[in-house]
Design goal:
- Helix 2 crosses helix 9 (177-186).
- The chain has a six-stranded antiparallel beta sheet with strand order 2-1-14-13-12-11, sandwiched between helices. Strands 3-8-5 form a three-stranded antiparallel beta sheet. Strands 4-9-10 form a three-stranded mixed beta sheet, with no helix packed on it.
- The protein folds into two domains: 3-58 and 180-355, DD-peptidase/beta-lactamase superfamily (Beta-lactamase, 3-Layer(aba) Sandwich), CATH 3.40.710; 62-67 and 75-175, no CATH class.
- The chain has 357 residues and is α+β, with helices and mostly antiparallel strands.
- It is built from 13 helices and 14 strands.
- Helices cover 35% and strands 19% of the residues.
């Protein structure tokens, strides 16, 4: 039993989680995995190292990366505005809304808020149109006559903002966000098991998400209620294995050989804070936000640290990348967010203590 596996097993025994997976990668060495628990409560089907996990808002860093790729391919620019590509929808919006750019949306400083998100999710789950068509309708709803506040460095976390960024990409390229992710992320990073929505929705044997605070009730991935609607994929609708997430994380190491996947300037753009999120806090302080990443203060001793957590309420996942140390930690559980947040935070602290050196 390797050290990570032993640590995960011991941690699992002390906390009431359904299933648990953690991965540690240092430099370009092999990725170390540890797993414990079951794929579904009250079943004897153990989780496996190759299992797929829903990463929730961890998808935002993938959407931001995709935008960086399209910028370098000349398909769009960071400062492309809503009026440039969504002109017919923003014709009746305020000038401040019309001037919102792609980078504003990704940095959560556009002014768009998640008001009505839950009601939209319920409606979109019943919508039989494609994810691209759903996002286009969402864009029309958000932009028609919009009066967003003027842009500011003080930002507000917005899932709708990432859906709009994807809609901009789709308008500019004529290609769906899903197809772009397959071609520009899944393929070059060797993420053959990665996909969209809840893992196991195709009938495969995978961890099921679990809802409920006092009792972990399994959610059948075949049900639409098991995940966000497809249109919300850019903000939080990707599943993958820990090995696959680790390969993506390596891109952000300071000694990473990107092999032409993205320039060093592109990495710098993605990891440079542009706003401060008042509604997401780290160490009790408002969080600096780059593009798809919270950037921890430098006094942590690890240099530039990128983190993000995410949940579709039935899974919870967290990623921590200490760029200067070429160290990445990823944790995922098929336990719902409210029960998982504190244990996952404790496990991350244990992993940092065990693998930082």
């Amino acid at each position: 039993m390797n050290s990570l596996q032993q640590l995960v097993e011991e941690f699992y025994q002390r906390h009431k989680l359904v299933g648990l997976c953690a991965a540690v990668v240092r430099g370009q060495r092999d990725i170390e995995n540890g797993v414990a628990g079951v794929r579904r409560a009250a079943s004897g089907e153990r989780v496996m190292t190759a299992d797929q996990w829903h990463i929730g808002s961890g998808a935002k860093s993938i959407t931001a990366f995709l935008c960086a790729r399209q910028v370098e391919l000349g398909k769009i620019d960071w400062h492309t505005s809503l009026s440039d590509v969504m002109g017919d929808m923003v014709a009746n919006a305020t000038p401040e809304t019309q001037e919102v750019t792609l980078i504003d949306l990704l940095a959560h400083r556009s002014g768009v808020r998640d008001r009505g998100l839950l009601s939209w999710i319920r409606q979109a789950r019943r919508d039989g149109r494609s994810a691209t068509e759903q996002r286009l309708q969402l864009a029309k709803r958000l932009l028609t006559g919009a009066k967003w506040p003027a842009r500011s460095d003080v930002a507000h976390y917005s899932n709708f903002g990432y859906c709009l960024a994807a809609a901009m990409l789709e308008r500019a390229t004529g290609t769906s966000w899903e197809d772009m992710v397959r071609a520009e992320v899944f393929l070059p990073f060797g993420m053959s098991a990665a996909g969209f929505g809840a893992p196991g929705a195709d009938g495969g044997a995978q961890p099921w998400g679990h809802a409920g605070f006092f009792r972990a009730a399994p959610k059948d991935p075949a049900l639409k209620s098991s995940d966000f609607p497809p249109a919300m994929g850019p903000a939080g609708g990707i599943h993958l294995s820990m090995h696959e997430w680790a390969r993506f994380a390596r891109l952000f190491f300071v000694d990473s050989a990107t092999d032409g996947i993205l320039s060093s300037q592109g990495i710098t753009r993605l990891t440079t804070p542009l706003s401060t999120l008042k509604d997401i806090r780290t160490s009790f302080h408002p969080s600096p936000y780059a593009l798809g990443w919270v950037v921890l203060p430098l006094e942590t001793g690890d240099g530039e640290v990128l983190v993000h957590a995410g949940s579709n309420m039935n899974f919870f996942a967290s990623i921590h990348i200490a760029r200067q140390r070429n160290l990445a930690l990823m944790i995922a559980t098929n336990t719902g967010m409210f029960r998982a947040v504190k244990p996952v935070g404790k496990l991350q602290e244990l992993l940092l203590a065990a693998f930082r050196q």
